[in-house]
Amino acid sequence: MRKDFFKNLVIYQIVLKMNNDFVKNEVLVHSDTLLKYANRFTKDENEAKDLLQETLIKVFRYQKNYSVGTNLLGWIYTIMRSIFLNACRKKKIEENYFKNIKSFSLVINNSAKNKGENSFVREDILKVMKSLPEKYIEAFVMYFEGYKYYEIAEHFNVPEGTIKTRIHTARKLLQRKLSNYRDINS
């Protein structure tokens, strides 16, 4: 069963087509061990397979960073652990975000006595979003949708630091322009 799983991995098929000796001969021979590592992290077989595939993609992408003669499994394990921890952090951030959104919507609903007031609040939020400079709001929305900083930077063809600044600026502008709704919660 495990051998079939590895043959179905997208990265496995790509490596075979590209004839990448490093990944094919050095990395994929440890697939069973890597799947066991992934299972220890996730405690779920499907999530472990996803984690392994993401790890193999990163190994393939960053194979130039591997120092020949060092502990290959240790290097791959570190990549896998980083991917897993980043996913956990992202999940926690999303949970906090949705918790805040729920409380924000409660504030809006409690402060608005009727549907007419609710529509005014929504209009205010949309008006503020539209008033922000496009370069800030586009980066902010992409980040909000789950894109990584480097992906947004590639999309806009600017350095990653510029994207972080734009997102931070958009967040601060939104906080400042919508501060009257924050005071309602107090």
Q: Per CATH, which architecture of the largest domain?
A: Orthogonal Bundle
Overall helicity: over 70%
Alpha-carbon Rg, integer: 23 Å
Provide the structure class: mainly alpha
Which descriptors would you attach to this protein?
single chain, 186 residues, mainly alpha, Rna Polymerase Sigma Factor, Chain: A, Arc Repressor Mutant, subunit A, 2 domains, 82% helix, elongated
Briefly, what is this?
The protein contains eleven helices and no strands. The protein is mostly helical and 186 residues long. 13% of the residues are buried.
Describe this structure in words.
- The protein contains eleven helices and no strands.
- By secondary structure, it is an all-alpha fold.
- The chain folds into two domains: 83 residues, RNA polymerase sigma factor, region 2, helix turn helix motif (Rna Polymerase Sigma Factor, Chain: A), CATH 1.10.1740; 74 residues, Arc Repressor Mutant, subunit A (Orthogonal Bundle), CATH 1.10.10.10.
- The radius of gyration is 23 Å and the shape is elongated.
Question: Secondary-structure map with pairings?
Answer:
Blueprint: H1 2-8, H2 10-18, H3 21-27, H4 31-42, H5 45-61, H6 72-111, H7 115-131, H8 134-144, H9 149-156, H10 160-177, H11 179-185
Helix pairs in contact: 2-5, 4-5, 4-6, 5-6, 6-11, 8-10, 9-10
